[in-house]
Design brief:
The complex is a heterodimer of chains A (409) and B (274). Chain A has 409 residues and is α/β, with parallel strands linked by helices. Chain A has an 8-stranded parallel beta barrel with strand order 1-2-3-4-5-6-7-9, surrounded by 7 helices. In chain A, α5 links the parallel β5 and β6. In chain B, the strands form 3 sheets. Chain B has an 8-stranded parallel barrel, surrounded by 4 helices. In chain B, α5 links the parallel β11 and β12. Classes of the chains: A alpha/beta (409), B alpha/beta (274). Chains A and B meet through α1, α2 and α3 of A and α2, α3, β6 and β8 of B. Chain B: It comes from Novosphingobium humi. Chain B: This is LLM class flavin-dependent oxidoreductase. Chain B: Keywords: Flavoprotein, FMN, Monooxygenase, Oxidoreductase, Plasmid.
Chain lengths: 409, 274
């Protein structure tokens, strides 16, 4: 039997391209209505996805109090959205991102325990630490805890939450999964070790098949070194995609969506990514490297390296920002036909580059609809994607061990 | 205009955290003409009422969902986001009942003020969403709240919209009182003082003499009843029947705030306290 492909739908806001909300197939008003989420939930279930995944932030998007005018935001609380989607679906898993930096163990334990019950065992927790400095003042702090301290807090919070779930399960009877499926998304050494110690599924970026293989091999070795079974961990890299009848048409479609991002939107997007307000600079002028490096809170060495070449050739700020929106997060971006995408996915999984994909539609819900209508049947005909769900819990769907040993009590 | 009777019911049984049971209770509450369904109990929360309210949001057409929100574990930033989402998902049928759960009344009041300040950081008409021009948002209509209270400091703007109703209907249980202006509904037991609020509900048992209570509503003494349920399905059926003369023919459309005839705009109410 061929290796199964696991599918997650990363349905952040209104799609992954910053200009995606302007596409004719996007419904930006929908993200404030239940009808939209009911439709999307059922669509994902029709495509036999394992789970819907939502990211999260605990601050408004923008830079130091300046809110973007052209980016599609605000959004609504993902935990509430996923709980409501649970109500109108039967099988699809619901993975919510929740920060260990600014959630109390009691609050998050209660929230996930209730969600696991109300969804019949479909809850997953993407365990993150908060890295954005604008978050701190929303919780009465001046500054974030140091990075190493944040990871220490994360480990403690997870341990405390597990203790609370153990108590609750003993008192009330276990929730269907005993605790949510643990998901992790860290790429750094700290993040990978943390993931190796607890994660049952890992979200990552893998722009090429070679990088996917290297990451998966590294993670499996770390999981084994942590005394856990590498086959009980799913590696789910992000995959952005633009589909059309021909490869040339897909490339043209991709360009058309990118063209919807004018320079003002691109510079806002870049400003937000670097946490450095660049909207006051002349788009035709040089990239303000010194300003960026003095303002950004993210690793200066990495950002300096990324700016070196475009600055050296004198690329104007607006042009640099326009190029940046194409692959901001380093994920694989596929452009082509449905059968080309299906073949690529099968090839990656066969090569051991991943266990499945976290699909990131460029715009919503149009691009996801195309995937479900056109790619899903090809994967099913090839025998790599289920035609029916095997059970009802997320662990069953993911093919993961049912009861974590540490929660059996 | 005749005054509408308000029927409120509360359920704190952990059995509510079971989808089949919750579905039955919601249907029974709809059929009984319940206006406010309080989720959770004051003394202990055995589940997260906000998750249950979100789950219930797509299943209600008129019942107002009122999660208890405990200041013991809830931070205003999380509360503001969560309730905003549930208000949209329910089509504007959300209320909230802040409770101290062993914490102080001052902290509880501060949580309410901080949460409202975050909601008020966004104007109702801030979204443009014009695909042609590429303008999504009018940024002049978004502000950092910079709220500094006795227990919480929250800068904002919160990454959520101002709720569909502006502010969800604010319910105060006199057993866990808090002092903020603009309380929409207050629930008090017989003999207990009613804190200031737009509507006053008397807390009674499911077995109370509904005919006698109806007379007190007619006399203008109370605006309705709050009934704590122990056997929800059976009690809701009985209560619905007993109170049918009062509950039938009331408005069934619109947001919860509109249906209860409560003021629509509460913007910047927190500033009145400063």
């Amino acid at each position: 039997m061929p290796r199964p492909i696991h599918l997650w739908a990363f349905l952040q806001g209104i799609g992954h391209y910053p200009s995606g909300w302007r596409h004719p197939g996007a419904e930006p008003e929908g993200v404030f209505t239940m009808d939209y989420y009911a439709r999307v939930g059922r669509l994902v279930e029709k495509g036999r996805f394992d789970a819907i995944v939502f990211g999260d932030q605990l601050q408004s998007r923008g830079v130091r109090g300046r809110t973007p005018e052209h980016l599609a935001m605000p959004t609504l609380d993902p935990m509430a959205l996923l709980s409501a989607i649970a109500s109108v679906t039967q099988h699809v898993g619901l993975v919510n991102t929740l920060s260990t930096t600014y959630w109390s163990p009691e609050g998050l334990a209660e929230r996930f325990a209730t969600m696991d019950r109300m969804s019949g065992g479909r809850a997953g927790w993407n365990i993150v630490t908060t890295a954005h400095p604008d978050t701190a003042p929303n919780f009465g702090d001046e500054e974030l805890p140091e990075k190493s301290q944040r990871y220490k807090m994360a480990a403690q919070t997870v341990a405390q939450a597990q203790a609370i779930w153990r108590e609750r399960n003993a008192a009330l009877g276990p929730s269907p999964q005993a605790r949510p499926v643990f998901v992790q998304a860290g790429q750094s050494g700290d993040g990978r070790d943390f993931a190796a110690s607890i994660a049952e599924a890992i979200f990552c970026s893998a722009p090429t098949i070679e990088e996917g293989i290297a990451f998966r091999n590294d993670m499996r070795a770390r999981v084994a070194a942590a005394g856990r079974d590498p086959d009980a961990v799913r590696i789910m890299p992000g995959l952005s995609f633009i589909l059309a009848e021909t490869e040339a048409a897909a490339i043209a479609k991709d360009q058309a969506i990118l063209d919807l991002a004018d320079e003002a939107l691109c510079i806002e997007y870049l400003s937000e990514s670097l946490n450095c307000d660049l909207t006051g600079f002349d788009p035709a002028g040089p990239i303000p490297v010194d300003h960026i490096l003095s303002q950004t809170c993210f690793p200066k060495a990495d950002i300096g390296r990324a700016l070196e070449k475009p600055a050296a050739i004198g690329l104007p700020l607006g042009k640099f920002a326009s190029g940046y929106v194409r692959t901001p997060r380093g994920h694989n971006v596929f452009r082509g036909t449905a059968s080309q995408l299906a073949n690529m996915m099968i090839q990656w999984v066969d090569a051991g580059a991943c266990d499945g994909f976290t699909l990131q539609p460029a715009y919503m819900p149009g691009e996801l609809e195309i995937f479900v209508e056109e790619v899903v049947p090809i994967l099913q005909a090839a025998g790599v994607l289920r035609t029916e769900y095997p059970g009802s819990t997320l662990r069953e769907t993911m093919g993961l061990p049912r009861w974590p040993a540490d929660m059996a009590a | 205009m005749t005054r509408s009777f308000i029927l409120s019911a509360g359920i704190g049984d952990p059995a509510l955290a079971d989808p089949a049971m919750a579905g039955e209770i919601l249907s029974a509450a709809e059929a009984a003409g319940v206006d406010l369904l309080l989720l959770g109990r004051n003394d202990s929360l055995l589940f997260d009422p906000q998750v249950i309210a979100a789950w219930a949001a797509p299943r209600v057409s008129r019942v107002g969902l009122v999660p208890l929100v405990s200041s013991r574990i809830a931070h205003p930033f999380h509360v503001a986001r969560s309730l905003s989402a549930i208000d949209y998902l329910s089509g504007g049928l959300l209320g909230w009942a802040p409770v101290a759960q062993g914490g102080s009344a001052a902290q509880l009041a501060d949580m309410v003020r901080a949460t409202r300040a975050l909601w008020d950081g966004w104007d109702d008409d801030c979204l443009i969403i014009d695909k042609a021009s590429g303008r999504y948002l009018d940024t002049t209509k978004v502000r950092a709240s910079n709220y500094v209270g006795t227990h919480y400091a929250v800068r904002g703007p919160v990454n959520a919209m101002r709720p569909k109703q502006g502010h969800p209907v604010l319910v105060c249980d006199a057993a866990s009182p808090f002092a903020v202006p603009g309380i929409d509904v207050v629930i008090a037991a017989e003999g207990q003082a009613f804190p200031a609020a737009a509507r006053r509900l008397l807390r009674v048992d499911a077995g109370a003499d509904m005919a006698a209570l109806t007379a007190r509503f007619s006399a203008g003494e109370i605006d309705g009843l709050h009934i704590e349920l122990t056997h929800p399905a059976a009690e809701l059926a009985r209560i619905g029947k007993a109170l049918a003369p009062l509950t039938q023919g009331r408005p069934a459309a619109g947001t919860l705030r509109e249906r209860l005839g409560l003021p629509l705009s509460l913007r910047n109410i927190h500033e009145e306290i400063a």
